[in-house]
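Intended use. Records such as the D-2-hydroxyacid dehydrogenase (NADP+) entry shown here are meant for training and evaluating sequence-to-structure methods. They are not intended to support clinical decisions.
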Amino acid sequence: MTGDDLELGIHPSVDIVFPPSLLREELTDLAADVRILSDGSALAGLDGVVTFSFEEAFLSADLEWIHCILAGVDAFPFEALKRRGITLSNSSGVHGDAIGDTVLGYMLQFARRLHIYRDNEPTREWYYPDWDETFTLPGETVCVVGLGTLGQGVTARADAVGMNVRGVRRTPTPVPSVDAVFTPDSLTAAISDARFVALTVPLTSQTEGLIGSDELDAMREDAYLLNVARGGVVDQDALVAALTDGRIAGAALDVFETEPLPDDSPLWDLENVIVTPHAAGATDEYAERVAAIVAENVRRIRRGESLANHVV
């Protein structure tokens, strides 16, 4: 893939996040052949594809490069891509502020009971909270599990509103806006006295099922779990049990074991749960940010350099 006559396709699956035409417009100055695909069968002749989701057709095409518009690429078969000589890059780094805003919004909703008031609107219920039901964020503690771009988007906002901020990462080196950094072997200690536990880690073999019954039992009864990572990071059955039994106060969940969240999931009916549709990273600048990474990688291809956000 020399980049001199690079042909790049925009897969229709990106429409889940933004119109394919918007991304193409952002790539107008790329000096490459960029076209919107109708389906996977239109892959012939392409050097690379920008996509939301993985298709088996990618492996049988002559692609050399796939760029995923998501940060999480656990749905992509790394070994199969390696065997086919296909390079995979992702959009890590574009979601920090959007995720941070969303998590701050979750915490404000729980602290100020905004989700309850909203739920009461359809029945015109005029409900005033008990004297000890609401609280403010300054002075409360949030533990952010995962201190990459997403986690630091959360920690910066939590610190700005006066919260005590701690974090969990593999190396205990200092991180801006974080008062104390713990390693994963001290996870239970890190979350044990936090009012909020925010998950921002990628889904890997090390993080799958990271939060289970033991970890939920270690949390305070008035604590809230906030998951903007991946559904598989949490044992969902254990979480439902903890929420139902009142062992934790609530949860805000943007990601789930199965997506969309099935109609029969008990999570829909729990008053102390906020469900969002894997949209914590959504922003009107999404296409622009993805385009910046794609354009940079096209420049790197032309210079024979390794790609930005190279995964495999």
